[in-house]
Amino acid sequence: MHPVILLDSVSKIYRSGDVEVHAVRNVSLQVQPGEFIAIMGSSGSGKSTMMNTLGCLDRPTLGRYLLDGVDISGLDRDQLADLRNQKIGFIFQGFNLLSRTTALENVELPMMYGKHRLSAKEQRERALWALDLVGLSKRTDHTPNQLSGGQQQRVAIARSLVNNPALLLADEPTGNLDSRTSVEIMDAFQTLNDKGITIAMVTHEPDIARYTKRNVVMRDGVIVSDILVADRSNAKNEMRRLDEEQRAAKLVK
Amino acid sequence: MKLSATLFIAVRALLRNKMRSILTMLGIIIGVGAVIAMVGIGNGAKARVEAQIATLGKNMILIFAGSSTSSGAKGGLGAAGTMKIPDAFSILREVPGVTMVSPEVRAGAQVAAGNQNWSTLVLGESEDYFEMRQWDIVDGAAFSDQDVRSANKVAVIGSTVAHQIYGDNDPVGQIIRVRNIPFVITGLLKPKGNSLGGADQDDVLIIPYTTAMKRLTGATILRGINAQAADDADITLLQEQISALLRQRHNIQPGHEDDFTVRSQQDIAEMATAQSRTMMYLLIAVAIVSLVVGGIGIMNIMLVSVTERTREIGIRMAVGAHGWDILLQFLIEAVTLSSIGGLVGIGIGFGTTQIISRMAGWPTNVPPVYVIGSFAFSAAVGVFFGLYPAKKAAALDPIDALRYE
Ligand SMILES: Nc1ncnc2c1ncn2[C@@H]1O[C@H](COP(=O)(O)OP(=O)(O)OP(=O)(O)O)[C@@H](O)[C@H]1O
Ligand SMILES: [Mg+2]
User: What share of chain B is helix, strand, coil (3-state, %, to 5)?
Assistant: First the structure.
């Protein structure tokens, strides 16, 4: 069985004029199916750059990236688009939802470009299923500007899941969310991971990283630590604890 | 991606910027509207001219005394005093293919009966004139060859004159005084309506040319000769033969210009339509310029739209859109814009045509091929001018597009 992700000495260099920015330097990394990893590091350490490479949105400047055993450097634009559509669910740092477009239509978007033509009814049903999965079945007709940050993030998650990807990539999925909502998102991720979806997630927060199985830390474009999480948090338990705390607080009042 | 879904996205994108979309369409609307209106009005005018030409008669060749090129100097067609009666009969005799001739004399005259009087045009013609011009006599009969030979004082009356003098009474058999000379009315002409020049053709009294020369003009010269060609005759050849014959009869030396003018019905029709054709070409030019300007407007707005929606393009690509999907989306948007412009233009063109035709009293006719053609052309303008912006959108790099602020 080959790894879902295999980075082999990958570098990403941005050139603007004479200045070269080495956003990712000579990184090698393997992620096996069923893993759930957190990529951590300070701002500017190259996390988003690496995620974009993993998500086939960008190509490495140097090195090889094998997705599911396939070297993406041999693929053209359209083949990469198909990979993004079929195999990868991507959750962006800034949601990246279509404005003035309802939650439902945003979630339907990947199916419009899918290889398998679904009927409008099937598309709608799948989109509703994905929205239900993230607990947004009551907000399907709302446009992004009518939704809270957490709700928008969940629409983005539903969109990433709608084509049943094997790999879920999330760039700071809890970045703009309160702690309760963050735990809810982590619960959704843990549930998906239990079902066998491989997840790679960028986060700043060590608390959030503890919901994953493995933590990779970057600094200046290099991986400086790569450890398995010993004492993993469980989102369901955490939510129960938060609920009890809240109830207790009410009683005190 | 499905075409219907793409079309839906395009229409929605256009509806989000209604005012902008309408303004963008304006060039196409004006262009197509101009084409349709021009064709409608042009065809209406042409049909009217053709109907008027048809009132001249059938296969008519009109020969006027006087040269057309120097008519101003000599006082106009029919003014030169060289055309004589024998010219007419030698044409009939010597030019095969000429079936009938009618020497023509004209005079303006006061006509009266009882206490009514009216100023009209008196035409001196032969008995064949009515058949040549396919001018039916609704009451009574034409004068005869005998009347012509004897220069009898008989007349066939046009409907306008009949109405002015006799009102609703039957004019046939009545006496009408032309410059105080009494004429017997033998027949009443069927109304023909206006001529090309706008004159009332029914405001006329037709008498034998012999009588006209003897009683009214007192001269032996003709204003011209009306000739009719056989159905299978080569009109151009006949015209040349008539010219040659008249030159010979009038002793015109080579190098000197004709003292007469020969025109076929076809020539007259062409002269009448030449003017409107120039107008038509001018309007076509305006329409094309307007369509091209409209196309550039579409290109401009599509470029703005691509820039505005760079992030949207990035998102679509990120979730799996191919370059082709993006290209199609923007192309369809441009074509939708131009086609709707085309449809509105067709509507406005039709409206204008209707209004103008109602005001001018012309028939209108826009052949479907122009409607389909101008619609197809406006759609093509959308494809042509939408292609560059759409290609630009399709060539965007997903990650750059997503980062675009
Ligand atoms: N398009 C680009 N052109 C030039 N430099 C870039 C570009 N994108 C990123 N960089 C640089 O690459 C480095 C890594 O950026 P990246 O976005 O990967 O950081 P990050 O770890 O995601 O940071 P954050 O936690 O703030 O999101 C930064 O120094 C950044 O300035
Ligand atoms: Mg980042």
Answer: 55, 20, 25
Q: B365 pLDDT exceeds 90? A: no
pLDDT (mean) for A135-164? 91
Tens digits of residue pLDDT in B149-164:
999 999 999 999 999 9
Rounded to a whole number, what is the distance in angstroms from the first to the last CA of chain B? Answer: 27
Q: Which CATH superfamily is domain A5-252 in?
A: P-loop containing nucleotide triphosphate hydrolases (3.40.50.300)
- Looking at the complex, report in whole angstroms how far the Cα of residue A85 sits from the nearest Cα belonging to chain B: 4
Residue B190 one-letter amino acid: K
Residues from A contacting B (CB-CB < 8 Å) are 52, 55, 57-58, 77-78, 81-82, 84-86, 90, 92, 96-98, 100, 109-110, 112-114, 117, 159, 163
CB contact under 8 A, B320 and A82: yes
ipTM summary value: 0.94
Determine the residue of chain A that is closest to B323 in CA distance: A78
Where do the structural domains in chain A lie, given as residue ranges? 5-252
Q: What is the pLDDT of residues B179-197, one digit of tens each?
A: 999 999 999 999 988 877 7
Burial call A76-103: b when 16+ CB within 10 Å, e when fewer: eeeebbbbbbbbbbbbbbebbbbeebbb
Residues B100-130 pLDDT 10s:
999 999 999 999 998 888 999 999 999 999 9
Q: Measured between alpha carbons, how far is residue B51 from residues B54, B58, B159 in Å?
A: 5, 12, 19
